[in-house]
C-alpha cells in the first residue's frame, strides 16, 4: 500500500475546452504543453479526499497511477480498469496536501505548529534539542519520548465518540431510539495493510522529468501534512526556478503563495486551507485549479 493523504487529479487530453478557458489565453510557466487538458477524477474507490482519515486512499495513489499511465506498455490495462478512453493520453496531474511516506511529512509538524503559536517555545526547544535527527513517532531517548508525548495530542478520533453518540447527531442520521447501542470506533491503527512503498518522491521526480505538468498544493493551515514538509521535498528535486516565490490573488486579496520550477512543476499554498484545502477554501482552490488547467499564471 502507498502512504497517502490528500487529493489528486489526473489530466488527460480531450477535444473540448473547459467552460472557464479561452482558447486565446497565453501559455503560462508550469503548463506549456499544447492542447487544452480535461480533468479526469479517479473513481471514489481509488481516490478519496478526507480530513478525517489518515489511511491510504485506495489501492494506488495519484503519484503511482500517473506513472503507470505514462508507461506505454502498461497503459491499456490501466485505461480499461479506470474506464479511460484509449484516445486519451495523460497531460499532467495535481496533488493536494500530499503525504509522501517520508519522515519529513511528520517532522515538519513541529516547526509548523511552533510557528503557528500552537506549541510553546519551551516544548519546541526541547524537541529540537533532544529529538534532532530522530523520527518523533519512534523516539530513541527518554527525554525525546517525553517531549514527543506532550507534542503528539490528537483529539480527532477521541472527539468523534462524543459527536457520534450525541442525540442530535443520531436524530440527524435517522437512528431510532433504542435500535443501536453506543457508537465505538472499530479501528485504531490496526487496519490490515502494510506500507510497501516507503516514499513517493521518486515518482514525482520521474513524472516531472518526463515533462508532465504537475501542480503540488498545500493548505497553509494543514497540520496533518504541513506545507513546510511538502515545500522541502519539492525543493529537494533541485529543479531551477522559473517564476520566483510570490503571492497569488483572488478578488483582490492574497489567496496564497506560489513558485514555479522547470520541468513544468508548480508549488502553491492556499491561504486558510486545512487538510484538505478544498474542504476549507473551495473558492480559492477552484480558482487555482482553473488557472492552472487553463495554462494561466496563478
UniProtKB/TrEMBL annotation:
SUPFAM superfamilies, from UniProt?
alpha/beta-Hydrolases
Instruction: Tell me where on the tree of life, at the top rank, the source sits.
Output: Eukaryota
Q: Which residues cross the membrane?
A: none
Task: List, in alphabetical order, the Gene Ontology terms for molecular function in this entry.
Answer: acyltransferase activity, transferring groups other than amino-acyl groups; serine-type carboxypeptidase activity
Q: Does the keyword Signal apply?
A: yes
Gene Ontology biological process terms from the UniProt entry: proteolysis; secondary metabolic process
ATP-binding is among the record's keywords: no
Keywords linked to the UniProt accession = Glycoprotein, Signal, Zymogen
State the family it belongs to.
Belongs to the peptidase S10 family.
Name the UniProt record assigns to this protein: Uncharacterized protein
